[in-house]
């Protein structure tokens, strides 16, 4: 949650939760927990996703592969168990990949607004389009968790702060572009698939946030739709 001082007023909002791990961006992972020998309810699906032999039985190699995936994306406990959270992340990745280069195939994001940033909460994807032309993306994003949902609807970018710092959480929010109260696009040092999600902001990798910063400006439209899984 960042404090936004603009024309003497203070607007308090919500920001993405920033945990100490920056696993997706190459920082050293936390020490791995012990591996479980128990097969999970999504064992076969997880094995297939990871390219492991699909037999529904937990092997030491299976556990280590699952555990590495969990550690990379901040899924806890990272004990190599093929549970619902781990499979949910993998299933979302599969659905995101299936979108390909046509993220607005359902026509939900307006094509009559000129340049607009679109956010599909259901698929946790964002992109920038100009009319029906795709300008950038789609890219995975990390939106608000249950109780801190990223608000839906048509909005406009009204304030940008490249070096914003949240006064509530005392965390950096680089490349912040605010579009609804305290909700903004900004970069974080987390995997985009790190559960359960942000405190309302649309989290991005540094590469994506920099690109959005270069492509968007104050007054540009933002359209948020759908519903994040688990909210």
Task: Present the secondary structure layout.
Blueprint: E1 3-6, E2 9-12, H1 43-49, H2 60-72, H3 84-99, E3 115-120, E4 125-130, E5 133-140, E6 153-156, E7 159-165, E8 172-180, E9 183-187, E10 202-204, H4 206-215, E11 221-225
Parallel strand pairs: 3-11, 9-10
Antiparallel strand pairs: 1-2, 3-4, 4-5, 6-11, 7-8, 8-9
Descriptive terms for the model:
single chain, 231 residues, alpha+beta, five-stranded mixed β-sheet, four-stranded mixed β-sheet, 11 strands, globular
What does the model show?
The protein has a five-stranded mixed sheet, covered by helices on one side. A four-stranded mixed sheet has the order 7-8-9-10, covered by helices on one side. Strands 1-2 form a two-stranded antiparallel sheet. 20% of the residues lie in helices and 26% in strands. The chain contains four helices and eleven strands, in the order ββαααββββββββαβ. The chain starts with a strand and ends in a 6-residue tail after the last strand. With 231 residues, the chain is of the alpha+beta class. Strand 7 and strand 8 form a beta hairpin.
